[in-house]
Amino acid sequence: MSILVEDRARVRTLTLDRPEALNAFSEALYDATTEALLAAADDPDVAVVLLTGNGRAFSAGTDLREMQALTTDPNYQRGKHGFNGMIDALASFPKPLICAVNGIGLGAGATILGFADLTFMSSTARLKCPFTDLGVAPEAASSFLMPQLIGRQNATWLLMSSEWIDAEQAKEMGLVWRVCAPDELMAVAREHAEKLASKPISSLVAVKRTMTEPLRTAIADARERENACFRDMLGGPANREALAAFAEGRPADFTKLPAGA
């Protein structure tokens, strides 16, 4: 089982549970997370979803070993939903979604915060969008959602630099709402989740719909642009060098790539 599900006081807590892999998203975890979100959306007894990770990480993003297999083996078994299915489920999730970032959030472990309605973060957690380190394009509508959420210049640094962002920087940017001591994170996030969950579900859904509906077309357009760029760059010179460097345990060297790569 790669995701844990717990119900209490109309709050469904979903815990990413691949601690040995820093909760990196394998195809199986993408599928499990998607199914859990779809089930929560349809469950009339669930008012709020609280998403967190087990162990030292929130999520280390896409499993790079699996990414390498997907780029080199045309017969590699893909999941039922995969990354795009999970993002579909997040983009259409009708109820309040609260994220409790307990540890590192890397790649998809950071960009999914663009779909959170509230984000709480441990003071020891860090976030990173390593797109330029991997020689790929943004994902999960982050090219639209991050400028909306944190402003263009903050988004530029987050999406282009591949640098770590600590909890205080994330709060200053507006990427997270509250920073908590590590041992208080889940209690504080749950307290707020249960406060929302005490309200009428129909009203929570209506508030979220009226806030997010104007963004849906822009989110879909951003994802289409990102996916086209990602397809073009996946397996390209920069991405091959990044994945080879990861597999060989060395820093990537992009300076010797063909011009424009």
UniProtKB/TrEMBL annotation:
The organism's place on the tree of life at top rank: Bacteria
CDD domains noted in UniProt: crotonase-like
A UniProt-annotated Pfam family: ECH_1
Classification via InterPro entries: ClpP/crotonase-like_dom_sf (IPR029045), ECH/Chromodomain_protein (IPR051053), Enoyl-CoA_hydra/iso (IPR001753)
Cell location: Peroxisome
Keywords, comma-separated and alphabetical: Isomerase, Peroxisome
Gene3D superfamilies according to UniProt: 2-enoyl-CoA Hydratase, Chain A, domain 1
UniProt-recorded name of the protein: Enoyl-CoA hydratase-related protein
